[in-house]
């Protein structure tokens, strides 16, 4: 089956805003991103904050409409061979990197193979890639050993950025200076990064899609406190922010402010899931009965109500109900039963001591969202009722990632991870034993190792028949639920907050992770 889309040309130069709402050139967008990321290029990480900035600088082969249908970006045409083993992309001519060098198929080949090697999700996404051929400067052919039915949906800028081979080749990806002052092909050029304050991106005057971009500048601001972000929106000091940048408790009030708006679209590419990850290398947690006891001590309805203010649904399986075609709705949450939890701990040999305590666990949370902190605070109380002492450690984002994924100096961590648009991309990384790699953020943090889960995930990744693929994922969810390396809690809703002076900010399935070439502002 051949799939092909060709980008038509831009009709005419747009000079100014009119009563018809045509885009106008100029102006500055004040865009809030939180937390401050450790890097500005998402070639080797899946950090949400990094993706929001990276995609304005480094583009992908494709972008996607709200129904996840692929649209051109650096690729203008593409086709998939009938056997699903070869993806051919015709690349856009005349594109330049920000340093003036020409963009070619060699950059695509280098990027895809790098993503396969170092990216938390890319290790699964591109697992079947055997080579990337470059028959000419503007053609790239991705060759697979097995079909990858999700691959055509995995090529957005935030998920699979195309980076300059001439900058990265022969270097350590993680320490390459490009991660701090990046060069891309995108509509905005990196100007400066003042740590703890802001990043400035300026208009790329040589962008391939003229007259875009319309904005002269994007100021990316870092404001750790969500209440302060809400105040900044109300004071017109911020124009735009995604992933619910204001406190959920303030959301109804924000909706009532005339010059502010709320957008629910732009999260189809994400599939948010709140979860609690067990470190299976920690002695008390090696015992399944201990993990089950903890699960029975936590009421997900309370987590939804108190941590997420009811914005979402209880979701006890690895695959969110947002991915309805794969979600196993027959699986129900662990019952809230403190008596059963206590018996399980007693059976595991962890009876209460004279002081009522059983043992201690190190509890932490991803600071990306205030709701993770609130979830962790509730879990700390729940564990206390079981006689488990769980002091709560709070870190900034970079320290959190290092503590959990490099040092592994935790027992339980409360997190939010993207299911993305397909379980092979967003879910497999958390449960696949081959994705346990200390130092790789948002990978298999529990150190879960199940031959059956691996078999099901690997089979689903290459299964072209939709019904058979669904069956494999349904079975995987039951296996992971029973083994309990992760306690899944809530599939939460997210929104974008914007000042109404900003137009065309949400046009694709990846929302705030788009390149913003078409965004314009009233001045």
Describe the structure.
This protein is of the alpha+beta class and about 525 residues long. The protein has a domain of about 220 residues: Roll (Dipeptide-binding Protein, domain 3), CATH 3.10.105.10. About 25% of the residues lie in helices and about 20% in strands. It has a seven-stranded mixed beta sheet, with helices on both faces. Strands 14-20-13-19-16-18 form a six-stranded mixed beta sheet. Strands 4-5-7-6 form a four-stranded antiparallel beta sheet, with helices on one face. Strand 4 and strand 5 form a beta hairpin. Helix 8 runs antiparallel to helix 10. The radius of gyration is 23 Å and the shape is globular. The protein starts with about 25 loop residues before the first strand and ends with a strand.
Mean pLDDT over the full residue set: 93
Distance between the termini: 48 Å
CATH third-tier fold name of the domain at 272-492: Dipeptide-binding Protein, domain 3
Number of helices: 16
Unreliable spans are 1-20
Spell out the key features of this protein.
single chain; 523 residues; alpha+beta; 6-stranded mixed β-sheet; 16 helices
Layout of strands and helices, then pairs:
Elements: E1 28-32, H1 48-57, E2 62-64, E3 70-72, E4 75-80, E5 86-91, H2 105-118, H3 122-125, E6 129-136, E7 139-144, H4 165-168, E8 188-194, E9 198-203, E10 217-221, H5 226-234, E11 240-241, H6 251-255, E12 260-263, E13 272-278, H7 283-286, H8 288-296, H9 300-307, E14 312-314, H10 338-347, E15 359-360, E16 363-365, H11 370-385, E17 388-389, E18 392-393, H12 397-406, E19 412-418, H13 423-426, H14 428-431, H15 451-462, H16 466-483, E20 486-492, E21 496-499, E22 502-503, E23 520-521
Parallel strand pairs: 1-10, 1-11, 15-17, 16-18, 16-19
Antiparallel strand pairs: 2-3, 4-5, 5-7, 6-7, 8-9, 9-10, 11-21, 12-21, 13-19, 13-20, 14-20, 22-23
Helix pairs in contact: 8-10, 9-11, 15-16
């Amino acid at each position: 089956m051949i799939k092909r889309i060709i980008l038509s040309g831009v009709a005419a130069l747009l000079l100014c805003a009119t009563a018809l709402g045509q885009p106008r050139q100029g102006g500055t967008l004040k865009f809030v991103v939180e937390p401050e990321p450790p890097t500005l290029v998402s070639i080797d990480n899946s950090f949400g904050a990094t993706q929001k900035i990276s995609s304005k600088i480094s583009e992908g082969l494709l972008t996607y409409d709200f129904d996840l249908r692929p649209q051109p970006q650096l690729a203008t045409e593409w086709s998939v061979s009938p056997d699903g083993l070869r993806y051919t992309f015709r690349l856009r001519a005349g594109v330049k990197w920000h340093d003036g060098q020409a963009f070619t198929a060699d950059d695509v080949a280098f990027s895809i193979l790098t993503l396969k090697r170092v990216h938390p999700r890319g290790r699964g996404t591109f697992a079947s890639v055997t080579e990337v051929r470059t028959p000419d400067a503007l053609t790239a052919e991705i060759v697979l050993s097995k079909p990858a039915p999700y691959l055509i949906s995995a090529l957005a800028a935030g998920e699979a950025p195309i980076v300059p081979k001439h900058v990265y080749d022969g270097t350590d990806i993680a320490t390459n200076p490009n991660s701090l002052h990046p060069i891309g092909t995108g509509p905005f050029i990196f100007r400066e990064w003042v740590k703890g304050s802001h990043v400035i991106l300026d208009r790329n005057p040589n962008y391939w899609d003229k007259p875009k971009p319309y904005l002269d500048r994007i100021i990316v601001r870092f404001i750790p406190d969500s209440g302060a972000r809400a105040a900044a929106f109300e004071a017109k000091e911020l124009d735009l922010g995604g992933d619910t940048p204001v406190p959920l408790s303030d959301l109804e009030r924000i909706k009532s402010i005339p010059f502010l708006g709320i957008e629910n679209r732009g999260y189809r590419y994400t599939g948010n899931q709140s979860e609690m990850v067990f470190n299976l290398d920690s002695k008390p947690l090696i015992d399944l009965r201990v993990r089950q006891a903890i699960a029975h001590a936590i009421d997900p309805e309370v987590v939804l109500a108190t941590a997420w203010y009811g914005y979402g649904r209880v979701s006890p399986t690895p695959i969110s109900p947002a991915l309805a075609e794969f979600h196993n709705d027959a699986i129900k949450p662990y019952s809230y039963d403190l008596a059963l939890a206590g018996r399980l701990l007693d059976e595991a040999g962890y009876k209460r001591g004279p002081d009522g305590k059983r043992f201690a666990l190190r509890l932490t949370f991803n600071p990306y969202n205030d709701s993770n902190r609130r979830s962790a605070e509730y879990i700390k109380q729940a564990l206390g009722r079981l006689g488990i002492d769980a002091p709560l450690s709070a870190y900034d984002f970079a320290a959190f990632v290092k503590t959990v994924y490099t040092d592994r100096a935790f027992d339980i961590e409360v997190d939010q991870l993207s299911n993305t648009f397909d379980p092979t991309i967003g879910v497999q990384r958390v449960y696949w034993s081959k994705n346990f790699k200390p130092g790789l953020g948002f990978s298999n943090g529990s150190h879960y190792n199940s031959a059956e889960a691996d078999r099901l995930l690997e089979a689903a990744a290459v299964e072209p028949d939709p019904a058979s693929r669904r069956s494999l994922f349904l079975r995987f969810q039951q296996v992971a639920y029973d083994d309990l390396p992760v306690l899944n809690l809530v599939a939460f809703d997210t929104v974008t907050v914007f000042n109404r002076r900003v137009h065309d900010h949400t046009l694709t399935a990846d929302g705030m992770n788009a390149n913003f070439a078409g965004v314009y502002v009233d001045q």
